[in-house]
Amino acid sequence: MSRIHVIGAGLAGLSAATSLAARGASVVLYEAAKWGGGRCRSYDDLQLGCRIDNGNHLLLSGNLSTKAYLDRIGAADTMTGPPQAVFPFIDLVSGAYWALRLNQGTLPWWVLRRNRRVPDTRARDYLALRRLQKVGPDDLVADLLGDLGHLYERLLEPLAIAALNTKPAVAAAAPLAAVVAESIVRGGAASMPRYPAIGLSESFVDPALAFLRDHRVELRFGARIAGLTISDDRVTGLVGPQIDEIVAPNDRVVLATPPWVAADLITGLVVPDQFESILNLHFRAGIDSGPAGFYGLIGGVAEWVFEKTEVVSVTISAANDRLDTDTDTLAAEVWADLRRGFGLPRTMPPYRVVREKRATFAATPAQLARRPGPRTRLNNLFLAGDYTATTLPSTIEGAIRSGETAASLI
Ligand SMILES: Cc1cc2nc3c(=O)[nH]c(=O)nc-3n(C[C@H](O)[C@H](O)[C@H](O)COP(=O)(O)OP(=O)(O)OC[C@H]3O[C@@H](n4cnc5c(N)ncnc54)[C@H](O)[C@@H]3O)c2cc1C
């Protein structure tokens, strides 16, 4: 029986592997690390004495590929979030609190209600969102939407930074438009915030690995692929420190590594090559979980704060310019913001700063133009990963969809 070799057990690889295994394919999964999940995982932090995620990950109920993946691996009930599309915000400068509340249906009557929309905005301001329906590849978020005053500063800018992990002055508007089209445009039912009830691994990784074991997929951890043997127009072998595997004539390969690894393995492959970091600070503290379990922060160092079981977790996106800030300074700045927003004590509790340097590719027009499709010049090699040309930004939904696409081509 021919085999399918999936390289990389991040969400793109897990999506491809589970999708193929569900259709009865014989799959082997190779992962360089000793664990799965890639940039989306949980681990025990000895210093904090609890389990944390590498970073807060927010999804939306309109993420349909993610929903199908969670259904497939039997993990749909591991996700949680409010029963409606509610997004609470705190302005750390003025102390103002508000919650954006979309109605469930596709007719957006919520913009007509002052208490459901962003403070100091008018219903007609929201008509400007139509600009997102006609974006060109070179349109930038700030150029397209930056004139919208409070609607921009209090909603669109934080939304764009969260979705694109790139400063709006240089970020392309097209992937933001793709996110909005799959969520807000489809109404509140498609825009409900979703996140794991326990942790990223408990929702996205552990159930997928259990599913793969149940489907007799061979899981090889600590199996870094360092080179591909190529003959004419196909991959004929996989090589690495622990691996020397023949790829038989009818076998197929899905390469689901990050882009920099894919470019190393395939000569001449053009991929995004500029990245943005995300910093997450986990404090051993608690805040009121509010109506959604998290808050958007306006006017502070960080953009989002999540109330978790054992920690308060704060996200700073598009953070290349904060990478060199030392840990204590960063923690003190963020703790000062949390104190202002939530009345927390002066004494800073134990904390952990997680710096994901290459969290996503930079969503600039020039980088988007470098996204490859799923096919390669080698006829048995397919690409998956959040960096491939999904139209979506570098997200869980994009990664999972790319895995499905590769699987369906096979
Ligand atoms: C801190 C942070 C916060 C984020 N927040 C959000 C969010 O709120 N919402 C959202 O939707 N997305 C978010 N993302 C993005 C999301 O995590 C990624 O888009 C997604 O996890 C990428 O999955 P992937 O499978 O494409 O890549 P990866 O997760 O990078 O997986 C690639 C895998 O390949 C393995 N590998 C690498 N080289 C080799 C090799 N040579 N041989 C074998 N295996 C190899 C790696 O170890 C890894 O497991 C966030 C990311 C980070 C880092």
TrEMBL record:
<dbReference type="InterPro" id="IPR002937">
    <property type="entry name" value="Amino_oxidase"/>
</dbReference>
<protein>
    <submittedName>
        <fullName>Hydroxysqualene dehydroxylase HpnE</fullName>
        <ecNumber>1.17.8.1</ecNumber>
    </submittedName>
</protein>
<dbReference type="InterPro" id="IPR050464">
    <property type="entry name" value="Zeta_carotene_desat/Oxidored"/>
</dbReference>
<feature type="domain" description="Amine oxidase">
    <location>
        <begin position="11"/>
        <end position="284"/>
    </location>
</feature>
<dbReference type="Pfam" id="PF01593">
    <property type="entry name" value="Amino_oxidase"/>
</dbReference>
<dbReference type="GO" id="GO:0016491">
    <property type="term" value="F:oxidoreductase activity"/>
</dbReference>
<dbReference type="InterPro" id="IPR036188">
    <property type="entry name" value="FAD/NAD-bd_sf"/>
</dbReference>
<feature type="signal peptide">
    <location>
        <begin position="1"/>
        <end position="21"/>
    </location>
</feature>
<keyword id="KW-0560">Oxidoreductase</keyword>
<dbReference type="InterPro" id="IPR017830">
    <property type="entry name" value="SQase_HpnE"/>
</dbReference>
<keyword id="KW-0732">Signal</keyword>
<feature type="domain" description="Amine oxidase">
    <location>
        <begin position="311"/>
        <end position="409"/>
    </location>
</feature>
